[in-house]
Amino acid sequence: MAVVKVHILNKWQELVNSMARFMKVPSALIMKLDKPEMEVLVASQNESNPASVGARADWAKIYCGEAIRSRKPQWITNALNDERWADNPLLELNLVSYLGYPLFLPNGQPFGTICILDIKENPFCEDYKEILGHFKEIVENDLSLAFKQEELIARNEELEILKDRLRTNSINLEKSNKELKDFATLVSHDLKEPLRKIIYFENKLREEESDDRRKSYLKRISDSALRMNRLIEEMLQLSQLEYQVDSFDTVDLNRVIIEVLNDLEIPISESKALIQLEHLPTIRGNQTQLYRMFQNLVANALKFHKEDQLPVIRIWEPLSGEDYNQVCIRDEGIGMTPDALDKVFKPLERLHSTSEYEGSGLGLSIVQKIVTMHDGTISIESSPNEGTTFTLKFPQNIHSRD
C-alpha cells in the first residue's frame, strides 16, 4: 500500500472541501481500505459533516464497500428505501444518499473510495457524477506518483545493498589475491625442499657403490616424494574448499565424530590414547567438510602428545547460547606458546621441524577454512606443557547453501 505524504493529504483536503461546497452536500470523503474495515482518510471540514477523520467501519456494510467490490461507481438515492443497507452504520449518522467512485493503485489493487454523501434523498445529477469522476482521476494520479516514488526508493535501497556487497566482494577479492600470492610463495618454497632432496639423493645414488647406502638414499628419496605428495594433496584440499558448493543439511556431530574415531582406530590404538567423548550437538552443515575438520583436530591432538604420557583427548559440548552451538576438543599434550597461537592457522606455518613432527603445516588452515565456511568461529587456549583446547562455535540457524 502506497504511503500518502502530508503534502498530498493537504491537497486532497482542499479537494474534498471544494466538493462539499460546490455540490452542496454535508459530507465529502476519501476513504482508505484496511480490511476488514475502511477508514476516513480525508473529510470535508464543513460543520455539518457528521463523519470525522479516523472513523472506521466494516467495509462490507457501507456504501464504499460495494463500490470496491464491483469496481464501479455507486450512487444511492435513498438507502432507507433499500433493504441492502439496513445494517449500514452510516444510517446512524443520517447519511442516506451516496455517490462514490473506487480508487485503485497502479498495480490494480484497491486503495479506497472518493465519495459524497447527503442527509436527505439526493438523485445526484449527471454533472456531479462527471465532476466526481475527474476528482477520482486526480487522486489516482497522486497515488500513482506516490506508488512510483516508493518503488524508486525501494530500488535505490536495493542498489545501495548491491553496492555494499560489491564493495565487500572487492575487499574480499583483494584479500584473497594477497593470500593467494603469499600462499603461492610458501608453496613454491615448501615444494622445492623435498624436490631438492630427491635430486640430491638421486645424484648420490648414482655415485654410491655400497648397497646399504644406496638403500638409505632410496628411502630418503621415497620419504621426500611421499612428503611432497602429502603436501600437494592437502594444498588441493585447502584450495578446493573455496569452491565447494555442496548444500548444507542437518548434521549430527555425534555420528561424524564416531566415524572419525573409527577411521583413526590404528593411530589411537598404537598411541594407547584415551578418548573421552561426550554428547555433541546437531547443526546445519556439510557433513564431508565437518568430518575433515574433526579428523584434522583429533589427528593433531594425537600427534602432539607428551612423550612420557599417553594421549588424553576430551571432546564435548559446553553450554551453548540461544543462537549458537559450541564444541570443544581438549588434549593434554605439549601445548603452545602465546606467539605460536597467532601463527597456527597460517598455511604452511609449522611450529616444529619435520624431523620432530610430521606434517604439511596445512591441517589447521583447513580446519579454520571449514569453520569459516559454516559461519562459525574457532579459538584456542593453550600453554606450553599444559595442553590445548580448541573451541568451535556454530550458529544454530545457518542458511542452507543450496
Characterise this structure.
- This protein has 402 residues and is α+β, with helices and mostly antiparallel strands.
- It folds into 2 domains: 6-154, 2-Layer Sandwich (Beta-Lactamase); 246-402, Histidine kinase-like ATPase, C-terminal domain (Heat Shock Protein 90).
- Helix content is 47%, strand content 19%.
- The protein has 9 helices and 13 strands.
- The chain has a 6-stranded antiparallel β-sheet, sandwiched between helices. The chain has a 5-stranded mixed β-sheet with strand order 8-10-11-13-12, with helices on one face.
- Helix 4 (211-241) runs parallel beside helix 9.
- The longest helix has 82 residues, at 126-207.
- The model has no long low-confidence stretch (mean pLDDT 84).
Topology:
Elements lengths: L5 H18 L3 E8 L2 E7 L12 E3 L4 H8 L3 E3 L20 E8 L5 E9 L7 H82 L3 H31 L7 E4 H11 L1 H7 L2 E4 L4 E4 L1 H17 L8 E5 L7 E8 L6 H4 L21 H11 L3 E6 L5 E8 L7
Parallel strand pairs: 8-10
Antiparallel strand pairs: 1-2, 1-6, 2-3, 4-5, 5-6, 7-9, 10-11, 11-13, 12-13
Helix pairs in contact: 1-3, 3-4, 4-9, 5-7, 7-9
